[in-house]
Amino acid sequence: MLQGRIIKSLAGFYYVESQNQLYTCRARGKFRKENMKPVVGDICDFEIDENNEGYIKTIDKRKNQLTRPPVSNIDQALLVFSITHPDFDSLLLDRFLANVEHKNVKPVIVITKIDLDQSLIEKIKEDYHDYHVLFVSSKEHIGIDEVKAVLKDKVTVVTGQSGVGKSSLLNALDIHLHIETNEISDALGRGKHTTRHVELIKMHDGYVADTPGFSSLELEMEPRELAVSYHDFRRLSESCKFRGCLHDKEPYCAVKKAVEDGEIAKDRYVHYLSFLKEVKEIKEKRYG
Ligand code: GDP
Ligand code: ZN
User: What is the pTM of this model?
Assistant: First the structure.
């Protein structure tokens, strides 16, 4: 039995990489029955028969999974935001962070175009001090090696609004994905999800998914899930007096205390409250 990672799926075949070899495999019928179709990113056991045909036998438990398009076992999401042109949008960043962390994917914030403006760097560092934040200029080749180091040995999705400099960054990293990053990654371009197909491209000893990844702006989660989506909120919520605290009107809330003490940025908390309102409204609409 061999073990490998599914890096591509096409027309009923799975392309499994194992020790730098690529094997074309089919899945045994039982997966369909168990409603556990293999997806790109899955780690699987497979065997090769005497006709050199591969069969996937079992799939390891997934550590996480995206649905559109289906890809699993993602280590991290690069959330690309420009410092200017377009203006740094912390409300959108906080929205992405909630979605990413809710899916149990580690976010890495990449702030681009720092050659154009440095005035916000300190504020971003402070507001997101509990996050991994990289400051880059693709134009001046600043911070590019740090991004390379982050990609090493990891499975990464890259996401960000159109115009923030994703293509330029990927070029600077010498990464050439198959998708038109420009069009599909437009975070506001709902309905542009034309890619059913996803592939993991090997680079810098890791994999980059040629998918826009988290381009959905919808917060598809329960209020309680939102309350523990940000890892620092989650950590603090263990000290909130009430189980299931939504860090809103509840007394003795550790998150609100952290905001008062300046440990959590006021802006982030204000954004959180607006998202909380939003997910509550979605819930009410759904269940009446
Ligand atoms: P994408 O839509 O996210 O792929 O963004 P692009 O990579 O196409 O970049 C959008 C615009 O920003 C282009 O005009 C780029 O030349 C410019 N740009 C990208 N990165 C930088 C940078 O680091 N510094 C400066 N000054 N401009 C940049
Ligand atoms: Zn609380």
Answer: 0.90
